[in-house]
Amino acid sequence: MTQAPATAPGPAAPPASAPSSPAAGRARPWYRDPAWYQAYGVYVAVGVLLLFNALFTDRFLTTGNLTTQLVQVAPVVIVALGMALVIGTEGVDLSVGSAMALAAALLPLYLGHGLVPALVLALLAGAVTGLVNGVLVSVVGLQPIVATLALFVGGRGLALVLADGRLKQIINPDLLSLGTASLLGVPVVVLVAAGLALAVAFLVARTTFGRQIVAVGGNREAAVLAGLPVKRVLTGVYVLCGTFAALAGVLATARLTASDPSSLGTLMELSAITAVVVGGTPLSGGSVRVLGTVAGAVLMQLLRATLVKHDLPDSTAQIAQAAIIVAAVHIARERRSR
Amino acid sequence: MAPPEAATPGVRKETGPGGAPTAPAAGTPVLRARGIGKRFPGVVALDDVSFDLRAGEVHALVGENGAGKSTLIKVLTGVHRPDAGELSLAGEPVRFQRPFEAQQAGISTIYQEVNLVPLMSVARNIFLGREPRTRLKLIDFPRMNREAAALLDGFGVRVDPRRPLHTLGLGTQQMVALARAVSVRARVVVMDEPTSSLEPREVETLFRVIEELRGRDVAVVYVSHRMDELYRICDRVTVLRDGRHIHTGPLAGLERTRLVSMMLGRDMAEVRRDGVAGFAADGHAAARTPVLTADGLTRRHQLDEVSLSLHAGEVLGLGGLLGSGRSETAKALAGGLALDSGEVTVAGKVLRRVTPAAAIAHGISMLPEDRKAEGIVPGLSVRENIVLAALPRLSRAGIVSRARQDRVVEIFMRRLRIKASSPEQKVGELSGGNQQKVLLARWLCLQPRVLLLDEPTRGIDVGAKAEVRGLIDELAREGLAVLLISSDIEELIEGADRVVVLRAGCLAGELAGDAVTEPALLEILADGAPTPRPAEEAEPR
Amino acid sequence: MNAPRPAEQTAAPAPARAKAAPAPLAGAPSVRAGTEDPGRRERLLGLVQRQGVLAVLLAVILVASLLYPSFATLDNARGVTVQASFLAIVALGMTLVIITGGIDLSVGSVFALGGVLAAWASPWGLLPALLVPLLVCGGIGLVNGLLIGRAGLAPFIVTLATLLGARGLLLAFTDEGATTYLVPKDSAFSWLGGGTVWGFGVPLFLALALFGGGGLLLQRTPFGQGLFAVGGSSDAATLMGLPVARTKVLVYTLSGLLAGFAGALNAARLHSGVTILGVGMELDAISAVVIGGTLLTGGAGSVSGTLWGVLLLAVIQNLINQIGSLNSSYQSVVSGGFLVVVVVAQRYLARGRRST
Amino acid sequence: ASGCSKPETADTSKGDAAAGAQATRPAGTSGKGCSLETYGAPRLDLKDAVVGFSQSEKEANPFRIAETQSIKDEAAKAGVKKLLTTNAQSQLPKQISDIQDMLAQGAQFLIVAPLNSDGLEPAFKAAAAKKVPVLTIDRKVNAEACEDYLSFLGSDFVEQGERAADAMIEATGGKGEVAILLGASGNNVTTDRTKGFVDRVKEKAPDLRIVAQQTGEFARDKGQQVMEQLIQSKPGITGVYAENDEMGLGAVTALKANNKKPGEDVKIVSVDGTRNAVQALAKGEMNAVIESNPRFGPLAFATAEKFYAGEPIPENVLITDREYDQENAEESLGGAY
Ligand SMILES: Nc1ncnc2c1ncn2[C@@H]1O[C@H](COP(=O)(O)OP(=O)(O)OP(=O)(O)O)[C@@H](O)[C@H]1O
Ligand SMILES: Nc1ncnc2c1ncn2[C@@H]1O[C@H](COP(=O)(O)OP(=O)(O)OP(=O)(O)O)[C@@H](O)[C@H]1O
Ligand SMILES: [Mg+2]
Ligand SMILES: [Mg+2]
């Protein structure tokens, strides 16, 4: 050995052997690098779809239309962000749609006390559904899919019980303006989703909690032995997911101008999971791609919009959707280096 | 030395020399690789490497961590496809698309990380893909279990073949992998660090098996960082460094320091000066009062009233055979294993419930034995794996400071000479030895009071091994209490001030100071006769 | 079977154990991994976990029979079992898929498509009525398998796409759902779905036969072992030389075939190719599988557990109807609550086993 | 809770019972008639009978709420011994088991709101085996009347589509571009309401071009989303035909949010007759609502009484659905559900 290992921090002697391989592979041009497609595949797909629409769809590149797409995708993005965190821990949350419905059902019941209490209550309901899921997963040790299945089934029922089974028109102007108002020409709904995306990106990249999420998903056993608060992380992630879903439920309700617990958020779990997975986050946990998730949601939104705008019958639309999803994931697929 | 039981399907002794008439005569190359190149994103793992393997020889493949040994093996066995170069098997050019094809062609491999299916039973793992069938073409489980038990028995492993693999200790798993690889009739058997988690006794068994393979004209590729082993059983050696071929030649007559200098790429003189073993010759000055005491640790079927104490500034060795409960003891101390009864006291304070978090908070760090299952988070970068446990300390108000992380990571990457293309490389892509160093860094950066090291030098190359040993020494000198579990008896003897020996989950004896000698240790290991032990140690009742 | 070392089978007390350890013979050193035979305990736990759902099922049936006299009747049993057969067949394929660590979301759509195709082909006789759906649905499964096994795409996304695709095909084939093909009555095909043997529907026997076959395939053939290996550790399976890609292709094809077959049977029973079937069926199947003790992460599971899981879901539904005139919203709440109780109970029965 | 939100109806579905009552149309009843003897059912007094009602979809939309409520109310009024109710939650297999379950529980007379026109045969067979008469309501099944089931009470969905077309033609003057918000795919109701509308428009107003047909899955938010897309890509649309009220109201919301006047810039016609829609109509935000009356209770029990009294029951008992327009909306609000 050329030197005794330095134990004290501080400027140590230059490394005995370079820590990085001197023979780094020559860089390939990006367009021939599979890793590039894997990292940016979703964005490429979004770009391709935008280009297609710009060329072949009437009135696509108008502010009005683009705003509509953003407004429609906002709730999906919000739910998908929470879902991405859950998936990062190798979990899944089927109950997001029910959490949306619960929030929607609670809103009109408490709007009488003002917007803020009603909002807080609705979000709290989401947090509680998340808490239930989280405890079932982390403490009881159920598989996430069964743990959240119970609330998937029961949550919407509960929402309908609360709402007496029926849709209620919302006439509270504050809540309604949440759905329609815009700031500097950008709808509030979109701003909320964008802000949340940034916040989650920050959470994942820069906070202890965020890094712990990824570690728990990457190797649970190792995380336990490294002394991470695994149960707390798991519970926290489901609580966040439930709360985000409730927020999405509130915004969707505001936009719909009605609280509709029977159909609000149906199939949302599938849309959200799809957005997350198309965005490049593996279902096996251990990584969370926030911007990819947003792009994934946008991709699916654009796809749906394209099909509606070209007035394809449902049969053709579904087949086309299937083909395009496979194609998009195919570009972005992980190529194993071998 | 009795050969493995004749009942074992694969390891049947050929009657007469060259029982198979088609068997190539010793000396003809069975497997030959020419100009192999393999590149991973950011790394050239192999660069124009040639290698040839003769029937009936045991060929050592050596090099530093990350030199490309495992990659070469993976190229030879169809896991990776080479970017350049060609392979030929018995003179025929081959291109393996999948490990399946290599196995069909008669190459049987034990990969570096135990690569079996944890949830499946021992017997199923051994026979996966070639299960014995009944007349109805259904799997004959009774026969399979019987054969598996017999096969393992031949390797000196007594384990119920119906047990799920993951309930076994790592060493036992390694023996199962060995049994699987050897029970296939193969022309070439490749072993990537088969002994890194084996006891001397199992190593002997392994060597016996290798001898037998040699006798059957089977070629063996043998990777190990333990020099003694190489000199004992290998005929020839190939040295790799930084993905390049450095030397191939007979091992006999090759000076040890010369071999090391070729591996490390440094002057022989330099190597000679620094030596290869890293422990200081003299012992440490241990404190009087123990910093950590364990009292009557008990867990059904695994630990039985294990008590021990660790003093600041000493290195306590923990010896034992495979499955004797050493790993369990360390895990229990670090809160990774729920106990039925027992008490852990740290610096006079009794821990009520030992959880990993509580243990860490009290300054206990444990380097787990199974780095793949319990250590690394493969998808995260080197940096994140190093700071994983220290995250809360490197952050303010829940927000981690990148600068502080980088500082810590830089220090440890340099200090442990971790070879990665950058701190951002995924740990899963590192070579085995470097993964181990990353884990060591994870625990060292917590600045613990008590360090429990379960096989810390497993899979680490000679240079780094010396460094790690030096480091252990130095840490103890600085006042850390170190518990050292090692299958390398020499390491225990040289490194530990005191050695406690476990046997089947019970304390079997203790040696201290000058009494720590190889014969004494082997004696306790062998029959567990409790030598005189300190009075305060409880009888394993 | 008995382990070859009876001495170690007995749970000897600790010190005795230490002494009983055979002195290592020269040349045959002994490794004692495990001091007793924890394998037995593990297996017992495994049994409880796999059959824990059976215990819960029996308990629910017992309570229900005591509370509701009309529950434990032959009539009720006939109704419940036949109705559960179709989901059971679909869940059988799902079990195999989940054991490999995958998932098949397309089964609901494929089930519906199978039914429509069978009804369309049924006027030409029994063989076309079975072959056409099997061919098409097996083909969809094959596409799933190729995309997952060979191209390496994520099962969730691939089968989500085929969920849409199969539904699209169905709509295209039925003129956007406007056409319903009918199965001629009194044909041999319609007997497959609607006939009875000893009072119980034919589909029940077909399902049981398939489960028997599925159990043998899974537990007693190399292919079945391969499924466990692929799910337990895909990398290890590759390194051990198993044909991982081929295994995946086969298992998704099998799942498609089973879903199509179940759909065809159902069409035979309903006498028509109903277009609105199968929505959400994948979730029912997945729940049944997971409740039956199969790990969603793959590598462990059993078909018998799935059978009990399907029955448990059917019995819970039946029970809710027995409870009487619950409003549909309360029904959901009750079944959600039931689900929690059942899975938590099963979880605690199986304590100590790995959960995920 | 004060008035920051309002439930859809103040007095739930009971509403103005008289105003909302169903009326059969003489011309609508058809078929040879089915009597107790021909059907082969045992004679029964409804007062000691166990009656089962199988609802098809969740009671989470006004139509289903009103329908179930009406059956329950009428059962109470008729004094049946026990009314069993089940809900198939939009799952056809569940509806089959529901019916079988009720038979196992001893139901003697069944009222079924089928989820689908095809596929309920096993349930009917089970009922027939026990000689339990089945009255189907609101959706007609493809089966033998008086054999598989007793009779059908309900509306003619094709005709509803035709009437919607008439209303649309009137509102738009027979030209322009219309979009159809379809119901759930593969559903008979969707198919019929579409067929009636499209055929009638083709026949009567060839200048009225149908430029988009997209599904809104019978839900308000989906209807809103599709409408938003259409507003952007097909600004020339002057009429929207929504196959149920919820989607129509979704379209109204979408138009309002995009600064268009529903009912004026874009004419809206929908089917159902829920209170919310009729209110929107009264406000001028919609142009016509074709009723599909869900209050089957009185008619169903009256039919049952008649049947057990020995009278033959016609195969189809079609009801007259009303039509709301902007003029009569205000006063007809009591009849809406
Ligand atoms: N899948 C991979 N992706 C990227 N880099 C890899 C991959 N596998 C190996 N490498 C890199 O290739 C180099 C050689 O690694 P290899 O595993 O062959 O080393 P080794 O000689 O076996 O070392 P050790 O003794 O530590 O096991 C290392 O720098 C490693 O980081
Ligand atoms: N999760 C588990 N369930 C049941 N038995 C286990 C489990 N983990 C370990 N064991 C058993 O407990 C015993 C002690 O194992 P341990 O790993 O502590 O031994 P060791 O002395 O460290 O040997 P090795 O070198 O094999 O790690 C072994 O028999 C092992 O098979
Ligand atoms: Mg290696
Ligand atoms: Mg160990």
Automatic annotation (TrEMBL), chain A:
InterPro entries, sorted: ABC_transp_permease
GO terms under cellular component: plasma membrane
Pfam families: BPD_transp_2
UniProt entry tagged with the keyword Cell membrane: yes
Membrane topology type: Multi-pass membrane protein
Region: Disordered, residue numbers: 1-24
Entry keyword set: Cell membrane, Membrane, Transmembrane, Transmembrane helix
GO molecular function, one term: transmembrane transporter activity
Feature: compositional bias, Low complexity: 1-10
Subcellular location: Cell membrane
Regions that span the bilayer: 35-56, 68-88, 175-204, 237-258, 270-303
Superkingdom classification of source: Bacteria
Protein name: Sugar ABC transporter permease
Organism from which the protein derives: Streptomyces gougerotii
TrEMBL record, chain B:
Signal peptide span: none
Membrane topology listed for this record: Peripheral membrane protein
Compartments it resides in: Cell membrane
EC number: 3.6.3.17
Keyword Metal-binding tagged: no
GO molecular function ontology, one term from the record: ATP binding
Keywords of the record: ATP-binding, Cell membrane, Hydrolase, Membrane, Nucleotide-binding, Repeat, Translocase, Transport
Organism superkingdom: Bacteria
Residue ranges of the region described as Disordered: 1-28
Gene Ontology cellular-component terms listed: plasma membrane
CDD domains listed in its UniProt record: ABC_Carb_Monos_I (cd03216), ABC_Carb_Monos_II (cd03215)
Entries under Gene3D superfamilies matching the protein: P-loop containing nucleotide triphosphate hydrolases
Domain ABC transporter intervals: 31-267, 287-529
Name the UniProt record assigns to this protein: Ribose ABC transport system, ATP-binding proteinRbsA
Species this chain originates from: Streptomyces griseus
UniProt gene name: araG_1
From TrEMBL, chain C:
GO cellular component terms listed in the entry, alphabetical order: plasma membrane
Gene Ontology molecular functions: transmembrane transporter activity
Region annotation Disordered: where it falls in the sequence: 1-37
Compositional bias of kind Low complexity: 1-29
Subcellular localization(s) per the UniProt record: Cell membrane
Keywords: Cell membrane, Membrane, Transmembrane, Transmembrane helix
Membrane topology: Multi-pass membrane protein
One Pfam family hit: BPD_transp_2
Transmembrane segments: 53-74, 86-119, 125-146, 153-173, 197-218, 249-268, 274-296, 332-350
Residue ranges that the Swiss-Prot or TrEMBL entry lists as coiled coil: none
InterPro entries according to UniProt: ABC_transp_permease (IPR001851)
Protein name in the entry: Sugar ABC transporter permease
